[in-house]
Amino acid sequence: MKRLSLSVTVTLFFSGLVFASDEAYQHVVQQGESLSVIAQKYIGSPVYPKHTGSLARLLSMNPHISNPALVRAGERVNLGVIEVREPAAEESAVGASTPTASFAAAPAANSALATTPMASAAAPPSPLLPVTAPATLVATEFKPRSLFRWDLGAEYFRIDSKDKSTGGKAVFLSNLSPQTRLTWDLNWTERWSSRVRVGLQSEKILGDEQATKTFNDARGSRASFEVGAMRRWIDSQLGFSIGRSQWIFARGVDASTIAFDRVESFEAKIFHERTLLRKQTVSLGLGLDARLILPGQGIGYTTQTGYGGSGSLILRHEMKNFSVEAQTYYGVFRQNSSLTEQTGSNTGLFLGLTWGME
User: Fold this and answer.
1) How confident is the model over 230-260, as pLDDT tens digits?
2) What pTM was computed for the model?
C-alpha cells in the first residue's frame, strides 16, 4: 500500500513538467505539406511577416532551402532544439497514457503529432527525427536541380544618333519587336547556380522623327548568348555573366540613305534580383543589371566600349515543379563608333514558363 502511495505521489509531482531536450530535431516533409504549414505547426503565428514571422524563423535554420514554395516530400527541415512535455497529471494517474512532443513556440501543435509508448519518451514521434549533433544541424542532402525556362515577349527601342563628321542628329524608332529566349539554370549546390541563355529578337526600324531619309536593312534580327554563375540567398540572388550580342549602328551611305548594321560585341554583365513581397506561392521581385559592352567591328568602322543597364519588375507564381512569370523592364545604353555617337533606350515585356527537374 505504501509502495502504491509513493508511486502515485511521484507521478503527480512530475505530471505536466516541461524540460528542455538536449537534441535538435528535424521534420520529414510529408506529401502535400508546405513550409508555411510546417512553420505554423511547430513555431506558430504569425507566419508571413518578412523578418519576424515563423516562416522567416524556420528559413533561417534551413539555409539550404532557397525557395520556400518548392519543398518536396521526404525532404528534411531543421527545427532546432525543442522541448518535450510529459502528459498532464490526470492522464498519468490512469497509467495508460502516452507522452507528446511539444515546441515552446507552438504548444497547440501537440494534437498534430503522433505518440509513442512511455518507455520511449525521449524519442521524438514520426515525422520528427533527432539530429545526432545538436550544435551542428544536419542539412538535407542536396540534389542538383535544373530549371528550364522559355520566355516570349515584345520590345520597343529608340536610338539617338549623332554623326561625328557633320554633327547631324537623327532619332530612330522600332516597331513592336517580338523576342524569345531559352534559359537553363543549374542549381549545383545549395547556394550556387550556373546559367546558359540564348535569345533571338526580330525588329523593324520605322523611321527617324523627320522621316526624310531612306533606310537600308531596316528589318533584321539579332541573336545573343551568355553564360554565367549566381549566388543565391533565400529572397535574392546575385550573378555575373559573359556573352556575345548584337547592337544596331546607323551608318550614312549617302546624303539621303542610312544603313543599319548589327555589330557583334562581347559583353560582361552583373545582375541582381530580390523578392520584395511574397504571399504563399506568389511573389513580386525587383531585378537590376549593369553591363559593359566591348568594342566590335562594323563595315568600315569600329565600335567603342559602351555600357548599359536596366531595371525590371517580376511577378512570379511558383508551384512544385513549374512556375509562371511576367517581367516588364526598361533599359538604357550608350555605345559610340568611329563614325557616330549613339545612345538609346528600350522597354518590353516577357511572359515565361519554368520547369524544374532533378
Assistant:
1) 999 888 999 999 999 999 988 877 777 888 8
2) 0.65
- Rg (the chain; Cα; Å): 30
Dmax of the chain from CA atoms?
Answer: 118
Residue 270 lies in domain: 145-357
% pLDDT > 70, the chain: 73
Which DSSP string corresponds to 249-316?
Answer: EEEEEETTEEEEEEEEEEEEEEEEEEEEEEETTEEEEEEEEEEEEPP-B-SSSBB--EEEEEEEEEEE
- Supply the CATH number for residue 230's domain: 2.40.128.100
Total domains in the chain come to: 2
Please state, in angstroms and rounded to a whole number, the distance separating the CA atoms of residues 295 and 293.
7
Query: Do 154 and 347 form a contact (C-beta atoms < 8 A)?
Result: no
Buried b (16+ CB within 10 A) or exposed e, 166-186: eeeebebebbebebebebebb
| Alpha carbon distance 171, 159 (integer Å) | 6
Q: What is the pLDDT of residue 129?
A: 62
* One domain, residues 109 and 174: no
> Does one domain contain both 225 and 174?
yes
Same domain, 156 and 262: yes
Question: Is there a domain that residue 203 lies in?
Answer: yes
Tell me what pLDDT residue 134 has: 41
Asked whether residue 140 is domain-assigned, the answer is no
Q: Kindly indicate the confidence band of residue 130, based on its pLDDT and cuts at 50, 70 and 90.
A: low
Instruction: Please report whether residue 136 resides in a domain.
Output: no
Dihedral angle sign, alpha carbons of residues 34, 39, 45, 50: negative
Residues 127 and 157 in one domain: no
Q: Would you state the cell numbers that stand for residue 64, as one nine-digit string?
A: 539550404
Cell 563608333 sits on residue:
337
Q: Is residue 328 part of a domain?
A: yes
* End-of-domain residue from the set 105, 131, 157: 131
Strands 257-279, 282-293: pairing is antiparallel
Q: What is the pLDDT of residues 296-324, one digit of tens each?
A: 998 889 999 999 999 999 999 988 788 99
